[in-house]
Each structure stands twice: as C-alpha cells, then as structure tokens.
Amino acid sequence: MPPSLTATYAAPSAPTKSFTHTLPSCPSSPSTSEKTAYLSALRQSIAALQAEVNEFLTAKMDEEKAGASTAGGELHGGAPSGRKEDEEEEGYGEEKVEE
Known about the structure:
Elements: E1 4-11, E2 14-22, H1 32-70, E3 74-75, E4 79-80, H2 81-90
Antiparallel strand pairs: 1-2, 3-4
Keywords: Activator, Chromosome, Nucleus, Telomere, Transcription, Transcription regulation, tRNA processing
Organism: Coniosporium apollinis
Protein name: EKC/KEOPS complex subunit GON7
C-alpha cells in the first residue's frame, strides 16, 4: 500500500468526510535528489489537500449560514450570526488571553 496523506472531517451533525492524496514511495536509503523529489511531492499534496479541505469547509459554513437564516438568524447556539461572525473575524489569528 503506497503512503498517503489523509485528513478527516467529523462532526456530530454531519457525515464523516475524508480527503486523501497518494504519495510517492520513498526508498529506505534515498539519495538527496530522491529526498528532494519526495518532499516536493509531499508539499504539493499538502497544498492540494488544504485547498480541498478549505473548499469543503467554506461550503459547510455557507450551508450553516443558509440554515441559520431560515431558522431565525441564529448560528452556533444562540448568538446572532452576523455579530458573532464579525467578532470571530476581528479576532482571527489573535491569541485570546482570559483573565
């Protein structure tokens, strides 16, 4: 079985989704050029896998937003979707320190 790169999405309210990319085999004692080729293929597979996961998650978020708008405008347990989303966007990438 060839090596592969796999990511799995699992949520209580949705079916599990797996994303898999097959990687080339790497010899047990690879030369520098074989290592370089393997790492290049790995990097390309990671980028492709990330793009697939991002596309899937964006679609899931759009589905949740559509469902929330038909269910009274609430998302993620009661906060109005627009306000909560704005707060999350504003703090994206920031470390949250709780006092």
